[in-house]
Amino acid sequence: MGRVQETAVYTHGHGEAVLRSHRWRTAANSAAYLVGSLTPGMRVLDVGCGPGTITADLAELVPRGGVVGLERAAGVLEDARAEAARRGLANVTFTVGDVHALPYPDGVFDVVHAHQVLQHVGDPVAALREMRRVTRPGGLVAARDSDYGAMSWTPASAELDTWREVYRRTARVNGGDPDAGRRLAGWAAEAGFEEVTASSSAWVYTSAEDRAWWGALWADRTLAPAYADRVRELAPADADGLSAISAAWCAWGTGPDGRFTVPHGEILCRRTA
């Protein structure tokens, strides 16, 4: 197929705070909708694998099979390889690549998985078509993405309202779709899948420990250069505005109570032909 040019800028960047968030992710908390479909001996492609924690979990779930973690940001793969080595996994490898032009022939994987990827790509339908191409007939394409527009929190905070507005505007200018979770099933149908199972799940941060971690994480991410520089360039917020948002995250995370919910859309797409 012809190459589709990737047009989106990865809004978060790959700074320490972002990778801190990504390392928290596991198959249990981020791919439970897929886990029951995995069996020993399967060959799995994990697109946008980041630091590899989910990838390593998938490898443990397909003994006698194999997992390939694919990531555009080459530097992050050092963390992924270290994670696999720490666990003593021999059935996982990592490579640099672009979901819009996967470096594999047709039909070589039993499962192709992407977590929090389609919201950041220039053409999510083309990405799904390419994921479908490298999946064998009868195999599965699995994707899960958050929905920023549907996130909710308590107590109310005008600064966090501003955070969401600024983030969504920035992500859209960067070429992505911050509300991708609600659009996955439609994108899958447009990509040619006839058998799509849609579901949803959420990350919920409500304990004092979880709120402190999530609040500090986003306080740091708000001021991280890859994101903050882009926000200031696009002018949805200046340095003082970003500092106020960061401080609001700290206040929310250390408050006496609260709850933050991150809803996700999920799709399991069977390649029928």
Task: Summarize this structure briefly.
This protein has 273 residues and is of the alpha/beta class. The protein has helices spanning 16-24, 27-30, 32-35, 53-61, 77-87, 124-133, 158-173, 184-190, 208-223, 225-234, 239-254, and strands at 43-47, 66-71, 92-96, 109-115, 135-146, 152-154, 195-205, 259-270.
The helix/strand class is alpha/beta
Average pLDDT for all residues: 95
> What distance separates the N and C termini?
17 Å
Total helix count? 11
Count of beta strands: 8
Beta-sheet strand percentage? 15-25%
- Please give the radius of gyration in angstroms: 18 Å
Q: Assign an overall shape.
A: globular
Overall description:
- The chain has 273 residues and is of the alpha/beta class.
- Strands 1, 2, 3, 4, 5, 6, 7 and 8 form an eight-stranded mixed β-sheet that branches.
- Helix 4 links the parallel strand 1 (43-47) and strand 2.
- It is 41% helix and 22% strand.
Structural descriptors:
273 residues, alpha/beta, 8-stranded mixed sheet, 11 helices, disordered N terminus
